Amino acid sequence: MKNQLSQKNSLTVETLDDLATLANYSFMDTLNADPDATDNGADHDPRQVFSGHYVPVSPTPIKDPEYIAHSKDLFSELGFSDSLAQSNGFIQMFSGDITELPAPLRKVGWATGYALSIYGTEYIQQCPFQTGNGYGDGRAVSVLEADIKGKHWEMQLKGGGRTPYCRGGDGRAVLRSSVREFLAQEHMHALGVPTSRSLSLYVSKTEKVKRPWYSEGSRRQDPDRMISEPVAISTRVAPSFLRVGQLELFCRRARQQAHPDAMAELEMIVLHLIDREYADVIDKRLSIVEKVLLLATMFRDRLTSLIANWIRVGYCQGNFNSDNCAAGGFTLDYGPFGFCELFDPHYQPWTGGGQHFSFLNQPAAAERNFHMFWTALRPLLASNQVALDQLEEIRNGFADEMQAKLESMWASKLGLETFNGTLFRELGALMIQTPVDYTLFFRELSHIPDDIGKLQISFYTSFGSKDADGLNQRWIAWFDEWRSLIDSRADSREAISEQMLQVNPKYSLREWFVVPAYQQAAMGDYRLIRELQTVMTQPYAEQSQEIEAKYYRKKPPEFHGLGGLSHYSCSS
Ligand SMILES: Nc1ncnc2c1ncn2[C@@H]1O[C@H](COP(=O)(O)OP(=O)(O)OP(=O)(O)O)[C@@H](O)[C@H]1O
Ligand SMILES: [Mg+2]
User: Fold this and answer.
1) What pLDDT score was predicted for residue 463?
2) What's the pLDDT at 2?
3) pLDDT given at position 464
């Protein structure tokens, strides 16, 4: 061991022995294990899990793992030396083999059950047993919790093999979806949007699985063939992976009195959530009632901020079910996501997602998830009508808080001190009628040009030719009005521009940048992934002219409507 325990906070993690000194498995140590599970986690077949907060599971390593990438930013934040990512022990652990870890690192991981609500309606149909007891982490296996530099982190393998919740799935994630998630998480973090983080990405040199996918050039909604893809494991990191759906599962069981400890298990998971995600804002000494009320207030605050941030950067989650909604209020599950290019309020890249999860409907979808969160907390206050009324008030205040956050976000994108509804609505109408690139438009606007001509680079159609419908005139009038509002501000134009450049990114992770990166990676060439990592983790920086020419671009016309690039049905 190169470092001493007493130096924990300044520890540089160079080996697994160093990592071992930081381990603190709070989930396994404070919550209930499934009483029917084997301790060694060797049980991988789908089955019902009736009680307990987690199932001990050993991950299934991918065969012949090869290093693709790690997040240098996260490594540096955690004090991990870069060389660790390519060391044998680390590769072994984070490609799913935890059988040889030095103590106190554990040789068994854990998977959790959760319930599913879609847009505020409870479902059990997705559970193979039609009870809800077989739904949860089907291919995500947590392998470590650690206290690092004053923060608590959980590390979870995605694609780490089958768990009792795998529902007949193979427990794997393919290279394509792993590359997408790996890049997007760190991009979102750099955009200033709360998110789970990417630690590492390893691919198997020999193991492949089949997934439905699109033929080259297909414009169909759904994939038209099965393809064989390499499997990969990406490791994601967050203070916890507790989801709204998880609280719901325990609430449903308490409601149905499914077993004698159901109510106690609900309370335990809620208190655990507070410990893991809200310890800095919810005092341990408060009563349970006070804790629950504060939790609801804080989650509402985080969730509304998160959604405003998503819209600010053009992010569409695509499948914002309660089981994809982190109870800590950050972005989770980068499968069905996409970044809006051509502005469309109904933008939805995932063909299975439906309009209710489309780009500008995300505030409404979030409110449904918040409603399910509220529903899950209610049993804990059942005997206290005053507290229930207070909780209801918090629930009912969601829409106003969401609206306030959205208005302040739009004002900041436009460089204004206060939201101007008339100006905003006219811009929305114009952006729907004139095809505009969302990222480029706001970035160009951030330079506060003197005439509207400078914004043309963001338009997908040419501006200034015919103006039969008076659209050009309306754009000019809108621009003049906006400029006069900017000019009436006390701050200098430079200062306003500076602020706008901080909220309107220059680079966003467009799908057509990612497609060649995962295609080349499947042939063993990882350079494009690493280039995207560099570019997309500094999305507000101008970067070089070469990078600008390559990545500050509208979507080429030939890519519009292409299956697997403009839309996709398989995110796993
Ligand atoms: N290949 C697979 N094998 C087993 N289970 C799977 C597989 N793909 C998805 N699942 C499970 O199906 C459910 C819904 O899938 P979804 O695409 O939301 O999840 P995901 O992308 O795997 O998960 P996460 O939300 O953990 O990022 C999840 O519970 C997930 O674990
Ligand atoms: Mg999911």
Assistant:
1) 67
2) 44
3) 60
Assess contact for 268 and 32: CB atoms under 8 A. yes
The rounded Å distance from CA 179 to ligand 1 centre is 16
350 - beta bridge partners? 568
128: exposed, middle or buried (Cβ count in 10 Å: 0-12, 13-18, 19+): middle
Neighbour tally for 456: CB within 10 Å: 14
Q: How far apart are CA 303 and CA 126, in angstroms?
A: 26
The number of the ligand 1 atom at minimal distance from the alpha carbon of 334 is 27
Is 261 among the catalytic positions? no
pTM beyond 0.95: the answer is: yes
The string of pLDDT tens digits covering residues 440-488 is 999 999 999 999 999 999 999 876 666 778 899 999 999 999 999 999 9
Residues 6+ apart with CB under 8 A from 230: 174, 175, 203, 204, 205, 207, 208, 522
Atom of ligand 1 nearest to the CA of 181: 27
- Mapping DSSP to helix (H, G, I), strand (E, B) and coil, where does residue 193 land? coil
User: Are β-strands 315-316 and 121-123 bridged in parallel, bridged antiparallel, or unpaired?
Assistant: unpaired
* Distance of alpha carbon 7 from alpha carbon 419, whole angstroms: 49
Query: Residue 170 and residue 24: Cα distance in Å, rounded?
Result: 30
Q: Where are the alpha helices (DSSP H) in 211-317?
A: 244-255, 262-277, 288-313
Structural contact between residues 319 and 350, judged by C-beta atoms closer than 8 angstroms: yes
* pLDDT digits 0-9 by tens, 372-396: 999 999 999 999 999 999 999 999 9
Q: Phi/psi of residue 349, each to 5°?
A: -75, -25
Q: Which residues line ligand 1 (CB under 6 A)?
A: 136-140, 166-167, 169-172, 324, 333, 335, 571-572
Structure token pair of residue 188 = 């979102």
Residue 243 marked in a binding site: yes
